[in-house]
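__Record contents__

***
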Amino acid sequence: GACTDGVNSYTCTCTAGWQGTNCDSNIDDCAANPCVNGACTDGVNSYTCTCTAGWQGTNCDSNINDCSGNPCVNGACTDGVNSYTCTCTAGWQGTNCDSNIDDCAANPCVNGACTDGVNSYTCTCTAGWQGTNCDSNIDDCAANPCVNGACTDGVNSYTCTCTAGWQGTNCDQDINECSATNNCAVCQNLVPSYFCVCEISSYEGILCTWAVIGTTTYRVPATTTTTSRIAAIAICAGLDEGGGFLGEPLAANLPTILTKVVARSTFVSGFMWLNVVRQSGSTWVYGATGTVATTNFEFEANVLDNCAVMRVSDFKWIIVSCTSFTADILCQRAITGKVVSP
């Protein structure tokens, strides 16, 4: 400092930063705590602040802008103290919003492959499916592919149920009813039907399958056997043109009947179910008329049931189980006179 002489005294005028009688005491410039967010180091008429993280300036009173480097790649930055927070735009995640959210993670494509986008996804549907999520079945019947039939939609497919006389995947092919072996005396294919004329007084019905004997007709359903009399009755009832009933032929007519029906069908078993049942003891009758059938019976070993079938080779009745014997069926009905089809 500067000294000023007095009488038996002196006065010191200290330079900046010093104090005391002799200006030998450094003034503590940190005493006022000038460093708001930091540590103070005293100097001579000065101080130095060492700022804590996130602060800057002479007195550490200015928050460093942690958003200045634009750390949020896809989002908005909010500055903190030695930190920042990113608010991500749609489709992004992570501290710096630099990780694309996998929009395919939830498997949104029900029937297809998922391709991730930014806040979006794209489905590549497997064949037969459509829609944003491939969850809508394409209507394969929309184009009306079944020309002569009803269409049932599937998945990338359809099925046609053809109307009578048509065939093929799209029901666009006429069935030639005359192309296969048939019983018509005259057969002419039509679109989509056919024209069939039977041998007059010999056969009648659709495709001439019923053999005419007097005022009665007979038929053996092709390659059809059954193991019970009850089932045989049902099969006859379900035949075309109103069906018929289980046969009750006169014994005298059997050779002629069999000759005619075999010309229209093939015996599979060598036996025929007829509508014959045991009335009592050794008396056997036809179920509908009650007419005694015959006494020409043979017994199958250990069978005492109430049913019998006819052996085709010699026209003998064989007593069999009513529910467990395999035989062909002879069906019968009254003459209809239908000799032209359809």
Q: What stands out?
A: DSSP finds two helices and 35 strands in the chain.
